[in-house]
Design a protein that fits this description.
Blueprint (H helix, E strand, L loop, with lengths): L1 E5 L7 H10 L2 E5 L17 E4 L7 H9 L4 E4 L9 H4 L4 E3 L6 H16 L2 H9 L17 E5 L3 H12 L3 E5 L10 E2 L2 H7 L2 E4 L13 H5 L5 E5 L8 H9 L3 E6 L21 H8 L3 E3 L8 H20 L7 E2 L6 H5 L8
Parallel strand pairs: 1-2, 1-3, 3-4, 4-5, 6-7, 6-9, 7-8, 9-10, 10-11, 11-12
Antiparallel strand pairs: 5-13
Bound molecules: 1,4-dihydronicotinamide adenine dinucleotide.
C-alpha cells in the first residue's frame, strides 16, 4: 500500500479517489486542512502528498516534507504555480495532471460569457421573484464579435473553437504559437486593441503575472468583456475594478481571483468578507464570480482521480519514471517532459 496524505479534501473529491486508490493499492489519508508550514508534518509516515491549487507548496513546506521522508508531490491539478518546483529539485519529485477535461474549463468560460452578455444571472433572479420586466436586460450578439484568446493550449484552443461555432472572429496570442493551427495569431497589443472579449488561458508565471494591468486595460476597447478561468493573478484586480468603475470594462467574468486562496472553495455566507477588493467586484452589476469551479464536472473529477493515482503508482513502481513529472533541471518545465523518458533527477 502506498500511503498518501491528501490535503484540502472536499466531499466531491473522495468517491473517485477512493475508487481508483483501491484499484491500485494507494491509500489516501484525507485531511481537510490545506498544506502549509504548520500542516506539513501531518504527512509524516506517508510516501506522497496529494495537493490542490491553493495548497502553499513553498520552499519551507518542501524542506519539511523532505525531512519527513515524503518522496512525491502529486498535484491533482494542471496548474502548478503554487509549487516551488525550483525548491523541489533534487529533493522531491512533482507530478501533475496535464489534462483532465479541457472541455470542462472551456465550456465554463463560454457559460460565464453567455451569462454575462445575455444577463441570465439577472433574469434568473427576477423571474424567481415573478418579476417579468425586461428593462436593463439588453445584451449583445456574440456573432460577429472579435474574441482575443490569450494562451492557445488545450483549453484555449477548445474555447477558440467554441467561439468559432458562434460565428465570432477569433484572434489569438501565445508565446509559443501552435504549429499548423488554423487560428489567427496576432500580437498581444492587437489582442488588447481589437478584441470585444478577451479570454485568458495561459499559465501564471513571472512573465504573465498582472498581464492585464492598468496599461493593458488602457489599450482595450471601451466596453471590453474580460473572462478569466485561468489564474487570478493574471489580472491586477485593482486595475480591473478601476476599469469597471470608469466604464472602460463592460463586464468581467471571473472563475479565479488573485487572493482566492483563503476564500474560495469554502462556505463564507454569514461571515464578513475581509477582502474589500473582492467585495467591491462582486457588488458590481457587470461582474460574475464563480469560485474556481470551471473544472468541476463528473468527467473531470474521474479523470483527475484516475491520472493522479496512475501518476503515484507509476512513480513508486516504475523506478520513479512518470510521464507527468514536472522538472526544473532545464528550466523548460512543460516542454522538457514531452521529450524525456527518465526521472528529472
Ligand atoms: P496548456 O499548457 O495546454 O496551455 C497553456 C498555453 O499558454 C500554452 O499554449 C502556452 O504556450 C501558453 N503560454 C505560456 N506562456 C505564455 C505567455 N507568457 N503568454 C501567452 N501564452 C503563454 O494549459 P491548459 O490545460 O490549456 O490550461 C490553461 C490554464 O488554465 C492553466 O495554466 C490553469 O492555470 C488554468 N486552469 C484553470 C482551471 C479552473 O478550474 N479554473 C482548471 C484547469 C486549468
Amino acid at each position: 500500500m502506498i500511503k498518501v496524505a491528501f490535503y484540502d479534501t472536499k466531499a466531491y473529491d473522495m468517491p473517485s479517489f477512493e475508487h481508483y486508490g483501491k484499484l491500485h493499492d494507494v491509500e489516501f489519508k484525507f485531511l481537510e486542512t490545506k498544506l502549509n508550514e504548520n500542516t506539513a508534518t501531518l504527512a509524516k509516515g506517508c510516501e506522497a502528498v496529494c495537493v490542490f491549487v491553493n495548497d502553499a507548496v513553498n520552499a519551507t513546506v518542501i524542506q519539511k516534507l523532505y525531512e519527513d521522508g515524503v518522496k512525491l508531490i502529486a498535484l491533482r491539478s494542471a496548474g502548478y504555480n503554487n509549487v516551488d518546483v525550483r525548491a523541489a529539485f533534487e529533493k522531491i519529485h512533482v507530478v501533475h495532471v496535464p489534462a483532465y477535461s479541457p472541455y470542462a474549463v472551456a465550456e465554463h468560460a463560454m457559460a460565464l460569457l453567455l451569462t454575462s452578455v445575455r444577463r441570465i444571472h439577472k433574469a434568473y433572479n427576477r423571474t424567481r421573484d415573478f418579476n417579468f420586466s425586461l428593462n436593463g436586460l439588453t445584451g449583445f450578439d456574440l456573432h460577429g464579435k472579435s474574441v482575443g484568446v490569450i494562451g492557445t493550449g488545450k483549453i484555449g484552443m477548445i474555447f477558440a473553437n467554441i467561439c468559432k461555432g458562434f460565428g465570432m472572429n477569433v484572434l489569438a496570442y501565445d508565446k509559443f504559437p501552435a504549429k499548423n493551427a488554423e487560428i489567427n495569431y496576432v500580437s498581444l497589443e492587437k489582442i488588447f486593441s481589437d478584441s470585444d472579449i478577451i479570454s485568458l488561458h495561459c499559465p501564471l508565471t513571472d512573465e504573465t503575472q498582472h498581464m492585464i494591468n492598468e496599461n493593458a486595460i488602457s489599450k482595450m476597447k471601451k466596453g471590453v468583456v474580460i473572462v478569466n478561468t485561468s489564474r487570478g493573478a493574471l489580472i491586477d484586480s485593482e486595475a480591473l475594478l478601476n476599469g469597471i468603475k470608469s466604464r472602460k470594462i463592460g463586464a468581467a467574468c471571473l472563475d479565479v481571483y488573485e487572493e482566492e486562496a483563503n476564500i474560495f472553495f469554502e462556505d463564507r455566507s454569514g461571515h464578513i468578507l475581509n477582502d474589500e477588493l473582492l467585495s467591491r467586484l462582486i457588488s458590481m452589476p457587470n461582474v460574475i464570480v464563480t469560485s474556481h469551479q470551471a473544472f468541476l464536472t463528473e468527467e473531470a473529477l474521474n479523470n483527475i482521480a484516475e491520472t493522479t493515482v496512475n501518476n503515484i503508482k507509476s512513480y513508486f513502481t516504475n523506478d520513479g519514471i512518470c510521464d507527468n513529472e514536472l522538472c526544473y533541471r532545464c528550466g523548460q518545465i512543460e516542454r522538457c517532459k514531452q521529450e524525456r523518458k527518465q526521472k528529472c533527477f
